[in-house]
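Students often ask why we bother encoding 3D structure as a string. The short answer is that it lets us treat folding as translation between two languages. Here is a chain of 339 residues written in the first language.
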Amino acid sequence: MKTYFSTSKPLITLVLITIFLSCGNSPLDVDVSDVKIDLKVKHFDQDLFQFTSAITPKNVEELNSKYGLFFQDFTESVINIGSIKNPNIHYQLNAFKKDSYINEIKVDVDKMYSDFSSYQNELESAFKHYKHYFPKKNIPEVITYISGFNYAITTDESYLGIGLDMFLGSNYGAYAQLGLPQYKTAFMSKEGLVAGAMLGWISTEFELSQKNADLLTEMIHQGKIIYLLDALMLDAPNTVKISYNKSQLQWCDNNEEQVWFYFIDNNLLYTKETTEIIKYMGEAPFIQGFPEGSPGRIGHWLGWQIVKAYMQNNPTITIEQLMKEDNAQKILNDSKYKP
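And here it is in the second language, the structure alphabet:
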């Protein structure tokens, strides 16, 4: 495979980009002050640990009445202790609640998230934008929980669950003890919480329907997801939206042309080889065979650039139309993408 990367773009390109960005407002900068939503936030992590004595079958009924489907998913899938219909489920819940390791986690969660109001405000803003672009879409309940380091985000049609123990900071000691690599923990922090939650929600709301998709289709799909984050979280830095640090994002910016021609020259866009797709789309500290500094998931980033070009060159296309467009080749062609 051909590889030929420089480490910088011509200065004139960066100057022109700066001038372009300074002209006019972004089309994504919309006024949502009149958008009305009723975003409910519930704290299962607090309600589960509120019982000073042992959890009883009656307490299980109370939790089920308040949390419904989420409670069922929590016991069956998140902490894997069985169905809430099991008459002995309260014993398993007590074992989870009394576990010394879980209690240490809860102490740390309570310290970091004692006041959730700022995150609630950010989530409300993001969902107002979501309602603006998709007025017929459902706004979920937001439910916080402690998962025992199992799941950061859980979703269903009616709820968006956030595992607070998965956002305790990139250097949180337990993450290293679990063997989680730095490239995975980098945005497991309070700064990444809202973006992670919104990414989890829209990824399940807009799933890739095509089976055995080629690399281009996978790239464009992920590009659409990140572009939607652009629309929902205008003030969030790009690093948070794609989970890259500044140097990784700079590497992509500096090498955009070379990355694109690498894909073209090596006939990668239409490959359906699983190993190739995983190489460019999967989580990894770097791309094997690429120069030093290349981040994993380069296909996500490249798809994002194509989608941004598509929306820039087709200003009448709405966000809703973008998310409904499943023809990746059409998006590429109409984007006139040329780094």
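Translate back mentally: The two ends are 21 Å apart (CA to CA). Keep this in mind for the problem set.
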